[in-house]
UniProtKB/TrEMBL annotation:
<dbReference type="InterPro" id="IPR043194">
    <property type="entry name" value="GLOD4_C"/>
</dbReference>
<dbReference type="GO" id="GO:0005739">
    <property type="term" value="C:mitochondrion"/>
</dbReference>
<feature type="domain" description="VOC">
    <location>
        <begin position="320"/>
        <end position="441"/>
    </location>
</feature>
<keyword id="KW-0597">Phosphoprotein</keyword>
<keyword id="KW-0677">Repeat</keyword>
<comment type="subunit">
    <text>Interacts with NUDT9.</text>
</comment>
<dbReference type="Pfam" id="PF00903">
    <property type="entry name" value="Glyoxalase"/>
</dbReference>
<keyword id="KW-0496">Mitochondrion</keyword>
<feature type="compositionally biased region" description="Low complexity">
    <location>
        <begin position="115"/>
        <end position="141"/>
    </location>
</feature>
<feature type="domain" description="VOC">
    <location>
        <begin position="188"/>
        <end position="313"/>
    </location>
</feature>
<dbReference type="InterPro" id="IPR037523">
    <property type="entry name" value="VOC_core"/>
</dbReference>
<feature type="compositionally biased region" description="Gly residues">
    <location>
        <begin position="85"/>
        <end position="99"/>
    </location>
</feature>
<dbReference type="InterPro" id="IPR029068">
    <property type="entry name" value="Glyas_Bleomycin-R_OHBP_Dase"/>
</dbReference>
<dbReference type="InterPro" id="IPR004360">
    <property type="entry name" value="Glyas_Fos-R_dOase_dom"/>
</dbReference>
<feature type="region of interest" description="Disordered">
    <location>
        <begin position="44"/>
        <end position="178"/>
    </location>
</feature>
<dbReference type="Pfam" id="PF21701">
    <property type="entry name" value="GLOD4_C"/>
</dbReference>
<dbReference type="Pfam" id="PF21207">
    <property type="entry name" value="GLOD4_N"/>
</dbReference>
Length: 481
């Protein structure tokens, strides 16, 4: 993937990526691009002194206001990744022979970073935890070290071996797994991560139709070093919504990249099933499209096309979210991974329908694997499912995946949140490339406490985000990933 520097002068043009093909192997093909023209520099007022950070001032699009390095874009070609420093002279020739002007970014942005949350090169090495270099702020849980360093090597990890398969091991699963049965019993399903392009409509769907609550909301100025918001470098937000506290409910993590308007769906995420007659009633009152797929079960879609299946029954006293369904190419191979390596119990297996239901406990949200009859396509909307485990189990999970030659997308890393707990996570990928996050349970329980101001923080952020109006006023569309 080729990365070229871009600084826009008055009336110049630039290319933004519109197609992202994620690779779990650490590389990605060059992204396609569509042409977007910036208005003259005079239409971008600088950030007024004393203005509230993170708020949209005048007509300057918020995704262009992250402080830091200069704007960059991806173009076709095999050349190596190039750095983009703010300002500077000269010009670079872009795709199709077009040259980008080199006027300092500060001339029309009032200084600071001008990137809009565009695709981060998948060739960039994953960065492990470590002290931030001088001159770099460590605020926020998703800041990344500026230096590209080799993946963290865990040596001599502690392992607890068993001599027989733990309960629920799949047929064909590996003997002597590096995880104990008690450790697996302590694991719990946490959330599924969705990328959303229309934050306002998405919030309405979860709050007014499904009846979920905003549990916490956070805004970030740059991408996450564990790629929580996908492979994007710019300003983004995270909103956790659910029917109850994250300690005992499976919730949704909604990630919003300010410069991205929509994502392409694949056949990897097949739906979430929950029990709520109130949600069915709400959908009918709101005129939201519903389709009865079986008696008492209705299919609907969240903004972006994510499918939800609503069982028209009284909401359960415990967590109403029953299962997450993911598409797989080879059911038995996937069962061997999720049960044989990750230690999930097999609750159901239907060879005829090519589906299986797995989980860590009877009272938790389950994972349903369903064969799609071919390769799994993750599109650009690919999500991530998260689980917690004891902190001391994380090195063992990492060591086991290395031993079994399985994919590790992000080696064990620490994420810091000012004023909150530091959590350790490791990001894996199953045989079909589904992203899986394991996080240390103790710190995560502290981090994920319900914030009573969550609703207000989300509403304030949406009120400050006038990006849709900005794009409409300039007869432009947000980038399609």
């Amino acid at each position: 993937t080729k990365l070229a520097r871009f600084i826009s002068a008055s009336g110049s043009s630039f290319r933004c990526p519109t197609v992202l093909k994620k690779s779990v192997c650490g590389t990605a093909p060059a992204s396609s691009a569509s042409l977007i023209s910036l208005p003259p520099a005079s239409e971008f007022p600088s950030h007024p002194a004393g203005a509230a950070p993170g708020r949209f001032q005048g007509e300057a699009h918020p995704s262009l206001r992250s402080p830091g390095a200069a704007f960059s874009y991806h173009s076709r070609g095999p050349a190596a990744l190039r750095s983009t420093a703010g300002g500077g002279g000269g010009s670079r020739r872009g795709p199709g022979g077009a040259s980008a002007g080199a006027a300092p970014a500060s001339s029309f942005f009032g200084g600071g970073r001008t990137r809009t949350g565009l695709l981060r090169s998948a060739r960039t090495p994953r960065r492990p935890a470590g002290p931030a270099p001088r001159g770099r702020s460590t605020a926020g849980p998703h800041t990344r070290p500026s230096a590209a360093i080799a993946a963290r090597d865990v040596t001599a990890p502690r392992r607890a071996r068993v001599t027989s398969p733990p309960p629920g091991r799949a047929a064909g699963g590996r003997e002597g797994s590096d995880v104990t049965a008690p450790a697996m019993a302590a694991r719990r399903a946490l959330h599924f991560v969705f990328k959303v392009g229309d934050r306002a409509r998405t919030a309405r769907f979860y709050r007014e139709l499904l009846g979920m609550k905003v549990l916490r909301h956070e805004e970030f100025e740059e991408g996450c070093k564990a790629s929580c918001n996908g492979p994007y470098d710019g300003k983004w937000s995270k909103t956790m919504v659910g029917y109850g506290p994250e300690d005992n409910h499976f919730v949704a993590e909604l990630t919003y990249n300010y410069g991205i308007g929509e994502y392409r769906l694949g056949n990897d995420f097949l739906g979430i099933t929950l029990v709520s007659s109130q949600a069915v009633s709400n959908a009918k009152k709101m005129g939201w499209p519903l389709k009865e797929v079986t008696t008492g079960v209705f299919e609907t879609e969240a903004p972006g096309g994510y499918k939800f299946y609503l069982e028209d029954k009284e909401k359960l006293k415990q967590d109403p979210v029953l299962k997450v369904t993911l598409g797989v190419s080879d059911l038995q191979k996937s069962i061997n991974y999720w049960s044989g390596l990750l230690g999930m119990k097999i609750y159901e297996k239907d060879e005829e329908k090519q589906r299986a239901l797995l989980g860590y406990a009877d009272n938790q949200c389950k994972l349903e694997l369903k064969a799609v009859g071919g390769a799994v396509d993750h599109g650009t909307a690919f999500g991530r499912i998260a689980f917690s485990c004891a902190k001391e189990e994380l090195p063992s999970i990492e060591a086991l995946m290395k031993k079994e030659n399985q994919k590790i997308l992000t080696p064990l890393v620490s994420l810091d949140t000012p004023g909150k707990a530091t959590v350790q996570v490791i990001i894996l990928a199953d045989p079909d490339g589904h992203e899986i996050c394991f996080v240390g349970d103790e710190a995560f329980r502290d981090l994920s406490k319900v914030d009573p101001n969550g609703d207000k923080l989300l509403d304030d952020a949406m009120a400050a985000d006038n990006s849709d109006k900005w794009f409409a006023a300039h007869k432009m569309k947000k980038v399609s990933a």
